[in-house]
Specification:
about 180 residues; mainly alpha
Length: about 180
């Protein structure tokens, strides 16, 4: 090995260590998904590693918001292959390294875009996906406390609350007055 090879190897190792790479030979980033989770405490001996993970995660999120999402919207404007449903939206976002937790940022970016009219279908799809994902989470939490024999009734009740329009009840006398005025 030559001196320049040795310096290059040392440089790669230094950069890998700086960015918290799992390997000292190649860049391999793994983020701790629990780094910002409330209630999870890391041992004091891991404080430096925890701070590094927090910094890297913040930098990655900033990169996604400032570069990847605008690039994704440009792709949607210029391509005939723009996503048309939730599944294709998910696939298109993941291909660009954008996790679905950034859907709110996608909606915000579209809402602030000068091309929001041309991106209306993406906006509707993203909002629908946020709604479905949120509903699924609430629904799963709701079902956790239901016994198996009551499962059908619970599902029916949940869907009724979700899908049936709710009107404000008017007093009994008011309803008959409204009918009599229509005659």
């Amino acid at each position: 090995a030559t001196a320049s090879d040795s310096r290059a190897t040392d440089a790669v190792r230094a950069v890998c260590e700086e960015v918290g790479s799992v390997s000292h030979i190649i860049f391999e980033m793994r983020f701790n998904p629990n780094i910002f989770s409330p209630g999870i405490n890391f041992p004091p001996s891991e404080e430096a590693a925890t701070k590094l993970q927090e910094r890297l995660l913040r930098e990655a999120a900033a990169f996604i918001i400032t570069h990847q999402i605008p690039e994704f919207l440009q792709f949607c404007l210029q391509s005939n292959e723009a996503p048309m449903d939730g599944a294709s939206l998910k696939q298109a976002l993941h291909l660009r390294g954008i996790n679905l937790r950034y859907l709110g940022h996608v909606v915000k970016a579209i809402s602030q875009s000068e091309h929001k009219e041309r991106l209306r279908h993406i906006l509707r799809t993203a909002i629908g996906d946020i709604f479905i994902r949120s509903t699924r989470r609430v629904f799963n939490n709701f079902l956790q406390g239901v016994d198996v024999p009551n499962l059908a009734a619970a599902v029916s009740h949940f869907l009724g609350c979700l899908l049936v329009p709710h009107f404000s009840a008017s007093p009994v006398g008011e309803e008959t007055k409204k009918k009599s005025r229509r005659r």
